[in-house]
Amino acid sequence: MPLTRITVLRINHRPFRDKRITTHVALTARAFGASEILIDSEDSELEETINKVSANFGGVFSIKTGIKWKSSLEKFQGTKVHLTMYGLPVSGVIDEIRTKSKSGGLMIVVGASKVPPEVYDGSSYNVSVTNQPISEVSALAIFLDRLFNGTELAKTFQGRLNIKPAARGKNVRILPTEKECLRLLADHGADEKLIRHSEAVRTLAVKIASLCGADEILVSIGALLHDIGKTKTDGISHAFEGSQILEDENLDERIIKIVLRHTGAGIPKLEAISLGLPEVDFLPDTLEEKIVAQADNLFAGNRRITLAECVQNYRGKGLDLPADRIMKLHTLLSDLCKVDIDLI
Length: 344
What we know:
About 50% of the residues lie in helices and about 15% in strands. The protein is α/β, with parallel strands linked by helices and about 350 residues long. It has helices spanning about 15-30, 45-55, 70-75, 90-105, 115-120, 135-150, 180-185, 190-210, 215-225, 240-250, 255-260, 270-275, 285-295, 305-315, 320-335; strands spanning about 5-10, 35-40, 60-65, 80-90, 105-110, 125-130, 160-165, 170-175, 300, 305. Strands 3-2-1-5-4-6 form a six-stranded parallel β-sheet, with helices on both faces. A two-stranded antiparallel sheet has the order 7-8. Helix 9 (about 215-225) packs across helix 11 (about 255-260), helix 13 crosses helix 15 and helix 14 runs antiparallel to helix 15 (about 320-335).
């Protein structure tokens, strides 16, 4: 259900009394598909808490406190819904609200204490999820779930911390910052030469990603860490060794796969076995994996080389099949970027 924007308006927030419950209202709004929350009382501590959650767990969600709720409600041009136990049952009006909200967006008003008559009169709909006393957190969650027909629960967030569902225990995968990537390299013994090479590959890879619509964050992190396995070995197995290092560090699986599949233009499973590598497919699959692999191919140390130089180096070692794969990958990415990568 495409909506232009969903705003949650929290009124009568009392920082000394309602901080915990308003925090839960904001977390529910964010997790269930809202774009922002506006809160009438100034509360910098609450803003810091919610902004920290968004920074760690991802998504685009904003919070602003100290707003004038009356003018915010009056000026909003879309559909306005006030959640109240005295309103119309959600099941009878949700389809109509969903349809009307597609064009002008939606504002959902959630009160912290007694709501003034202006809210009832100024809202397009006064809606109840039940005509019994209920927590405003529960009411907001149920309303948004009905609004999205449950699809909001499948929404993905890309943040520094990503939870991988597990039947037991806690499995949290990390998407590190640039500073954390450099610290990881240093902690595992990367020398200055390896770090300079990784930074050079990252610069080119991000430029390619920006031209072909790839995820620049994944590309940047993957490029910085692609050769971390060389702190253990400089041989053909360095990509696999790197993936194991990052697995032990609980990094995001997408980054691990970028590192695992970056050698040349990838290595097919049977070829990997013949090289003494584990029986896995080292061929890059996602666009981000392909970009990092090819950006790496175009550097010798931190010196930029051309496709022709790269291919000549491979053929000179009798590696014709890998050279052919590199040429095909170069053509694919150049077509997506609408410019020869050699010219980037």
